[in-house]
Amino acid sequence: MLEVIILGAGKGTRMRSSLPKVLHNLAGKPLIHHVIDTARQIGAAKIHVVVGHDADAVESAVSAHDVSCHRQTEQLGTGHAVKQAIPACRPDSTVIVLFGDVPLLTHHTLASVVEMAASGPVVLAAKVEDPSGYGRVVRDGQGLFARVVEHKDANEQERELNEINTGVLAATGEQLASWLNQIDNDNSQAEYYLPDVLGVAIREGVSVSVVTTGSDEWLGVNDRVQLAHVERALQAREASQLMAAGVGIADPTRIDIRGNVTAGQDVFLDVGVVLEGEVSLGDNVRVEPYVVLKNCSIGSGTLVNSFSHIEDASVGNDCQIGPYARLRPGSELAEGVKVGNFVELKNSYMGAGAKANHLAYVGDATVGANSNIGAGTITCNYDGANKHKTILGDRVFVGSNSTLVAPLTVADDGFVAAGSTVTSDIAESQLAVGRAKQRNIDGWKRPTKEPKD
Ligand code: UD1
Ligand code: CA
Questions:
Q1: pLDDT, tens digit, 9 for 90 and up, residues 198-217
Q2: Whose CA is nearest to atom 37 of ligand 1?
Q3: CA of 150, closest atom in ligand 1
């Protein structure tokens, strides 16, 4: 059986934050969620999370993830942290320890650790250009693993070593329990260091295998500079995956994916696009600069112009949105709809070919096919206490600067004269004029300025 222990009890002092480190956000979710997801992907039968600093917050953040939490009441080091969870692991399980602040490790890499662990304890290392701050892997004369020395405890020669400990190690539950009882805190930080268990293994004559990971998987998050660095590394990975799947991206360093994106063929994403939650993009969707798409689906052939914001909405095929359009939750557009600049939609349906080209608020409304909402139109959906619906039939024309006071129904082909305040229903093909009649006054004398004394 494979069990995973994830460490998340540390405060993360170097973040200088009131939020526990493992709850800091990476690509739209807490650091520790990334690690839990990876643990799940390698088929962990049980996932243990060690919590301590602000334990309540961390526990509630992971509570929906089918993990068991173990409290480390004092943060006495990574070895001491693992000790809190080990009694809950089966002695014959393969136990992998992951750190909640090392979020980029892939399941492919961890799968090779699991595979190797079948024949003895394993540590995951990485050869890096700048090893400073990390524990170094010390090898013996034959090049075999000897021990890990922490940066703070390392002498000058050891600091030259550029093979680092990623923090990941694997052994059986029984081995870890026994070795953890044999480590001390006789070091510069007076902590019980987890990697010291590997030194104990060597002393007992058990050899330790080293699996090495490449690229930037090993990056840890200890401060905000590293968090930003890890974010860009993850975004670069996401962008590469999308491009490999055929999505065109103007600049992979200027795109942010904070969720899951599915995309059809020949989608193009311009600079500054942010995709959050579950986003699906049909074939030939084009997204212009600085657009936010959150939990939405965009139909094939649709163009989303710059600076638009779309959330919890569904947009049909061949629509044109923006620039500067806002589709709020519950917006649903059929095919060929146009929603132009400074138009806000909320909880509303727009039928095929309907248009709201400029400056309108459409809330709690159903707009029939090929209807046209003029500039400055507002659905007055809220009476101060309750929300009401506005229902417009097909081919309705709403002239500019009209206020549609809900509840209101305009039947097919209804026509609202510009500047109307409409309070009662309009029947099929009727024209409604809801404004003061224009009077032209002859001989009108303009006011003149009174002389100043
Ligand atoms: C640790 C390793 C180091 C490795 C590096 C990789 C040790 C002693 N050092 O150093 O060899 O190169 O990670 O990123 O293991 N934690 C607890 N309880 C504690 C202390 C820490 O749960 O008492 C958790 C933290 O929340 C964090 C993880 O363990 O998720 C690592 O702790 P951190 O203090 O960041 O260790 P590093 O100094 O980075
Ligand atoms: Ca760390």
A1: 999 999 999 999 999 988 99
A2: 134
A3: 11
Residue 365: domain span: 224-432
C-alpha torsion sign, points 242, 244, 250, 253: positive
Is the distance from the beta carbon of residue 164 to the nearest atom of ligand 1 less than 6 Å?
Answer: yes
Contacts of 228 (CB under 8 A, 6+ apart): none
Mean pLDDT score across all residues of the chain:
97
**What CATH number corresponds to the domain at position 390?**
2.160.10.10
Domain shared by 208 and 257, yes or no? no
∠ Cα 374 377 381 (to 5°): 140
Q: Are residues 29 and 166 in the same domain?
A: yes
pLDDT tens profile 225-274: 999 999 999 999 999 999 999 999 999 999 999 999 999 999 999 999 99
Rounded Cα–Cα distance for residues 349 and 331 (Å): 6
> Is the CB of residue 99 below 6 angstroms from any atom belonging to ligand 1?
yes
Q: For the chain, what is the domain count?
A: 2
The answer on pLDDT for 24 being more than 90 is yes
**327 occurs within a structural domain:** yes
Domain presence at residue 441: no
Quote the tokens at residue 308. Answer: 């638009």
Which of 213, 244, 259 is at the close of a domain? 213
Domain annotation covers residue 244: yes
Give the pLDDT score at 280.
98
| Residues linked to residue 279 through DSSP beta bridges, in sequence order | 261, 296
